[in-house]
## 1
Amino acid sequence: MTTEAPVKSPSTARFLSQLDMTAPPLEVRNLHVEFHTTSGEAHAVNGMNFVLSQGETRAILGESGSGKSVTAQAIMGILDSPPAKITHGEILYRGVDLLKLSDEDRRRVRANHIAMIFQDALSALNPVFTVGFQLGELFRKHRGMSRQASKAKAIELLDMVKIPAAKQRVNDFPHQFSGGMRQRVMIAMALALEPEILIADEPTTALDVTVQAQVMGLLSELQREHNMSLILITHDMGVVADVADSISVMYAGRVVEDAPVADIYARPAHPYTKALLESIPRVDLKGQELAVIKGLPPVLTNIPPGCAFHPRCRYAKDNCKVPPEPPHYDVDVNRVAACHYWREVIES
Amino acid sequence: MGRYVIRRVLQFIPTVLGTMFLLHYLTSLGIQLTGNPVRALFGDRTPTPAMMAALSERLNLNDPCLTQTGNPCIGLFGERLVNIAQWDFGISLTGQREVTDIIGAALPYTIRIALIGFVFEAFVGILAGVLAGLRSGGFLDYFVKISTTLIIAVPIFVLGIVIREFVAVKFGNQLRADPNFPEIISRGFLAAGYKPDYPWASLFIPGLVLGATSLAVTARLTRTSMVENVRADYVRTARAKGLMPRRITGVHTLRNSLIPVVTSLGVDLGVLMGGAVVTETIFNVPGIGRVAAQSARTGDASVVIGIVTLAALIFLVANLLVDILYAVLDPRIRYE
Ligand SMILES: Nc1ncnc2c1ncn2[C@@H]1O[C@H](COP(=O)(O)OP(=O)(O)OP(=O)(O)O)[C@@H](O)[C@H]1O
Ligand code: SF4
Ligand SMILES: [Mg+2]
């Protein structure tokens, strides 16, 4: 794909000159996000940390409500604030802290440098505009292209995500596509301006199992072709095993284990990760009752002191129940776990 | 789109026939239960049977079915439909004029008031609703909430009379006392009643009063719709696309938020026609609302029925147009 030169303002030029291409594409440091609610401050993200390396696929895994989407939206800068508020932390894109940028520069980072795919493509696409309009809009607004040229681009993109008869379908509305096709349109939209980083928030959860594999396949194929770094948010351990390089396991808004994918599957170092793995249905254990993690995720306005997981943990001892929270212990050179008893867990 | 329009128009025909029949049946039933309306015209005097018969003949009230309670008078209904299609609503009982003449003379005033009210309600209502919805919980939002509640709570005749007395009469008279003040404002816009030399300006205040209630409803509906849509997933997508805030609101949010508002505005066209009865009476405007009120008072059933028929037709046509507009705005309906 050819790209016209973006319309550059002096401030954009300044921003581009600050980027350090030797720094990792993305690094999130000690991120805290709170929601102001009637029952108090909900601590949705509490010291989130991870590094996304060039070309890497990093899965972010965790139960519902663990703060995965909030983290993604914080990176994109599309949190609803109020009620959301980023209280601490840094989000470094090629070494530049996005949280310190002007609104205008921040806006230009979206879609141009970091793009996002949402879970439910039907509601994430605007129902009253054609997909051609919604794709073309990116080229018209970010690249200053004409209506005609941007339409040609839209068709090119639909072709890229393998939508048959792209020339005709470009004039269709989102509801005229099947679920899988709509998610392909979302993917096309995210890739339109060739971003360096793609965040996919549960891109296949809303789809049929058969379609899931196709969409995931397309996504990783395009990631390789465009040399993007990918953040893949999911609950699906199966998907993770197939495509991810490394995993950040989240619990109560914090990473509890961060490791290369093979290591985590072979020998989880955190009781929560272990429990998650045990809750995957396995063909060889057919007929046995599925293990579920007992207890409920914490209420975010009142997170337990010490290790947030202690009320549900079968390894918990007294020191787990009092502050400070367990630090990130180095399990290996490229592997951390936030559990005082990770040795015991990894060996059991 | 074409198929949708055709289907909708085909549905329109039985709706019109049904409405017309209902009106006809109620009228017939009224005559069957209370007797020949011609009698009322003679007041205390007792008409001779010959006079009664002659007048009834001219007014087409001699059909024997009108004496049989419950008879739907299908034959008369057919005649009436043909007449209406030929723009013939019969003759007024009192003045012996063609009802269409009476309506034709009064309609331009009502159309003007309704138009002023409609533009006011649509423009100000949507603007207020959008601004309130964008900053829900903010100052403007509370202002819109409180002021619209007040407007909705106050009956239109109270609002009309208060505005006539304080704005048009008291304040207007002060300005009119000043010879240097432009007449278009003092005698036109602030007129307390209709002034033939200011055919639009003097209908300004009545139009605003007429549109006030609907404006409040429109503002609230727009606000609710905006609040719902600013948090919609596709708006989040628009933000993730790095679009300018102005475009996100002006194109993506607004377009979706206006879909229900357009529907309600279309229905309001009919409501405005109905509201004209009160407003026109208060501001002494010779429109069909005032004519209907006067005719009802003198017992001139032909005129009242003619006006109600016309109002029903306008209402139905407005609804048809709204449905078509709805499909233009919402592709999900178009391709159903
Ligand atoms: N707009 C909001 N207002 C208030 N609280 C919110 C809002 N958005 C998210 N939260 C809170 O943040 C917490 C984390 O939400 P988040 O959407 O990140 O979870 P998640 O890990 O993505 O879960 P899921 O797997 O269900 O998508 C939730 O428990 C929720 O209470
Ligand atoms: S720190 Fe304690 S409570 Fe927390 S996971 Fe480890 S053992 Fe369980
Ligand atoms: Mg989520």
## 2
Amino acid sequence: MLEAQAVSKHFGGVTAVDDVSFKVAGREIAGLIGPNGAGKTTMFNLLAGSLRPTSGRIRLKSRYVETSPPYARMSCGLGRTFQIPRPFAEMTVMENVLVAARDQVGERMLPNWIVPGRVGRLERANVEKARSLIDFVKLGRLAGEPARTLSGGQRKLLEFARVLMADPEIVLLDEPAAGVNPGLLETILTRIAEINARGVTFLIVEHNMEVIARLCARVLVMVSGRILCEGKPREIAADPRVIEAYLGGAPR
Amino acid sequence: MILDLIAYGAFFLTTALTYAIMCLGLNVQWGQTGLFNVGVAGFVAVGAYVSALSTTPPLAGRFGGFGLPIVAGCLIAMVASGACAGLVGTITLRLRADYLAITTFGIAIAIELVALNAQSLTGGPFGIGFIPRPFGTLAPSPIVFDSANLALVAGVACLVFLAMERLARSPWGRVLRSIREDDAAAASLGKNPNRYRLQAFALGGSLMGLAGALQAHLIGFIAPDNYLPALTFQVWTMLIVGGAGSNAGAVAGAIVVWGLWSLSGLLTSLLLPGDQQARAASLQIVAIGVMLVVILLVRPRGLLGGSFRRRPPPNDGGSELDAGKLV
Ligand SMILES: Nc1ncnc2c1ncn2[C@@H]1O[C@H](COP(=O)(O)OP(=O)(O)OP(=O)(O)O)[C@@H](O)[C@H]1O
Ligand SMILES: [Mg+2]
């Protein structure tokens, strides 16, 4: 589904991602963990196209995409959320979700004047779909509120609903549980599992090991820009190399 | 006397509405997309000259004079200005906002210089005359002539306004707003920010061209000094006074500011002796500047301020209360 092949990223002298290779299989939920500054978010930005790798290749389904711009990834079925949520603050929750709909006739300029009827029909269908997604993440009461009024956890939920609106095949979630209160956390976890059951693949960066243990069958551990090891969550949690990396800062 | 007043009122509104169309163009560029175009006058000039050259009768020693109908002239003007904006946009939209501003300013100056110096194309400093007027045959009766012009321009302005309103409320307008708020997030959802910016820039440019063409056909004569940077300044003031982001604000701002401009012109010509008149013209710019400052102090979002807030949104749930206060 998604494959990194010997990907590296340098920022000046800093090597944030160093010769990383891994695969994410279709329909799985894979975890990506590691101490702060390990390069997880940088890896996500490379996969999502916000950054270009210094070297290495990224394959999405059958295409190599490392040089394609971020907006082109969605048409290959890849969606992502951000570590610090980026809602469109002045737009309502509903509008935030509606923006994400793909293949809207009304997204082109001319149809809005020439075939307003078709635009309107598709828009109504999209509003319905958006509403059910907003209800799905329990933001139904807030649908008409500007996104800036949401709490941090609610913003994470909004971003989740928004990316789902685009019907992605694979979603990269950067710390979906960070800063989320326990009630909302439960919502996020069950929703991820439900969407995965419908066939969507996930790659999740998360510091909360309980979340990882509940969702992921397979975890990649990243330390200082490299993949240290991978395995089942329980094996990983007991691996002395991993424990040392978390406790002792940089390994070796 | 009353008839003169009515005729003057119609003439005033007609002119104001041509500015309103420029303002609607600037609104889609700046108000809705955040593109800082300081070259409004250039795109207006392109529209005016293109329509003039398309519709005037042939003239020896000068390019063009194709004798096309006025409607055709206006449409060609829109295409030309839109293409011009598209070209400028393709070159500059990757640049940061301040560079776009410098580039558009430079291009507007270049266009004005071409108009001034390319005599065989633009008629040079003397401009182009005998531009066909839509109701030229009615000119002997000012009140009929001015009312007919007003009806025509009001109709066009109304059409443009409705078209822009529909667009602002369409999925296209929604993507535009999302890009303006956070283009990286919009890109992550599959929207190509530069494509939308380019469309908005070209659309705004073509409206400015339409307004330029209309003005040319109303007056029947154009010259390079109609398209000085002061025009850009006027249109910007209109949009800010009316409320950037709002189409209704763009129209209202154009009428209010043009009203003040005309009034201050009238007052200086009444109150000041003839030899001071030329200097007094700069007082008009001062009056507009003062008005701009007052509006920015009293109603920073303009008379009919749009939904866009200039303050950055709070970053976390903790500042919800503050957010409430700002609204
Ligand atoms: N744009 C940048 N320029 C320079 N250095 C950067 C840049 N982005 C990231 N880095 C560096 O790359 C390293 C990896 O950062 P990254 O944000 O990917 O870590 P992370 O694993 O996501 O950490 P966290 O768990 O804290 O989110 C860090 O040392 C960081 O300082
Ligand atoms: Mg991170």
